[in-house]
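Summary for the steering committee. One of the milestones for this cycle was to obtain a three-dimensional model of the protein with iron/sulfur cluster bound, which we needed before selecting residues for the alanine scan. The sequence and ligand used are listed below.
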Amino acid sequence: MNPLVNIKEAQALANLGAIFFINHSGGKDSQAQFLKVLQDMNIPKEQIVVIHADLGRFEWGEETDTIAAKDFVINNAKVMGHETIVVEHDQNLFDLIRRYKRWPSTLARFCTSSLKTTPIEKYIAVYAERTGNYLIVNCLGLRAMESNERSKGQDKECFDVSKVSYTLSPNPGLCRKTKKVEVDGKLKSVNMGLKVYNWYPIFDLTEDEVFETIEDAGQTPHPAYKEFGMSRLSCICCTLASKGDLIQAQKRAPSLYLEYADLEKEIDKTVFTKKVKGKTILVPLLEYLSVPSKKRIRNYVKAHLDSEAAGIFLKEGLTIEDIVESIDAFTSYIRKKTKFKKELKDKLLPLHGNGFKKSEEYQEAMHLFLEKERP
Ligand code: SF4
């Protein structure tokens, strides 16, 4: 069994009275992990705390005319008989980007640590002090298949399970929590004894299994998935989101995207790229989103051109606008070429049989034709 989904050890911690914090973002993975913890384990209700880090207008809701992620979490928890603790940071996503003068990236997810992890960890530390319960399991809806980095096990800080007796990994920030106490008349830092284990109850689940878990429980995921085709319920303008998700989110929250564009100018940085004549260049977000994805271009050229012409367009890395501009010239070239090839075949087939395309005459004629006619 994957140690990261070791239910036996999680149950042992539950039997010792550990408090299980369910990190719930409102996304499908959070929802499924909450269900799994309730279904697969035997934890008294008072040992479960549902917690949500509120990202304000950057969450689905306020700007997108859908139920707010925060309200979705509160309702979802209520259905399962639990209250929700909502925590927040005093700065928002754009404040942080302004402060660090950079956009979040896979290597620098300062927004996740500042806006989600830190407020939740702070709450856990205060909770432990207030209640005297220092044994905590911090449940996160992370899945191996969701991220290559995670599936390769590179998230060492969380996944290094070798140093502890439990294979659930200790939360490094919180386990270091110390308190200043007076010892022999001097103030000393002592470890409070807080033990927080990070646990990934749905680490091995596939995306389909996540949706199945939700459906089988008679629940529905946040409407952004089905109504708008979002693949993740991340921040509305998360630089790490897929292009498809960004395009959908832009349609729902255009004003936030205009603010994003202003911020790009303000800090004079962008992270998006596009290919121009085979070279990759940085472009502002709005330009990036206006360039159709390769899939869209492929579908377009396939619908309008024969496969050879489509191949040429795609190889050149042209945009739909480029294609539309030259499509007439290309279409007439394709027609001419088809006619020319047919005439050539009629002439050479009786002379060379089915291998006529390999004949010198054919090769030469085609070469001259392409040199002269190809746009
Ligand atoms: S969803 Fe994206 S922008 Fe939001 S906190 Fe996570 S990484 Fe940062």
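Key point for the committee: The chain has three domains: 3-224, 234-290, 294-373.
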